[in-house]
Write a structure and sequence with these properties.
VTT_dom; about 0% strand; DedA family protein; single chain; transmembrane; DedA_domain; transmembrane helix
Length: about 140
């Protein structure tokens, strides 16, 4: 069981950084093998994914000197930047979404949004997403 938790934690952590990964599929597979471990797998996924997003957040903070607002307003950043500028820290409730979620975290750090509020909203979005996955997998497994 401990091995499954580390696999879930590390898979969720890596999936939340700018590296590609499918932590949802990993969680579903581990739940299918160990349905009784749903609570600890859910927590491992939520914490790992949140910490991965915070890594992106801090990389955004560190990159503040590397990019100007004009550079960020062009290309692939434009949509995510507009979302963060419009909704501020609340946009981080969508940090779980594929592709744009990673950018939201990087831009939140780049824009120096409040760390504690950002962390809380990222955690809420990710835990709710994983809880829905757990509920769906366990429901269909019955």
């Amino acid at each position: 069981m401990t091995e499954s938790l580390w696999i879930m934690f590390s898979g969720a952590f890596l999936a939340a950084t700018l590296l590609p990964g499918g932590s949802e599929v990993l969680l579903a597979g581990l739940l299918a093998a160990e349905p009784q471990a749903w609570l600890t797998l859910w927590l491992a996924a939520s914490v790992g994914n949140t910490l991965g997003s915070l890594t992106s957040f801090w990389l955004g903070r560190l990159g503040r000197v590397a990019k100007s607002p004009e550079e960020l307003a062009s290309g692939g950043y434009r949509r995510a930047l507009a979302l963060v500028q419009k909704y501020g820290v609340w946009s981080l409730l969508l940090a779980w979404t594929p592709v744009i979620g990673d950018l939201l975290c990087v831009l939140a750090g780049w824009l120096r949004l409040p760390v504690l509020t950002s962390t809380l909203l990222i955690l809420i979005g990710k835990t709710v997403r994983y809880l829905l996955i757990v509920a769906a997998v366990l429901h269909w497994a019955i």
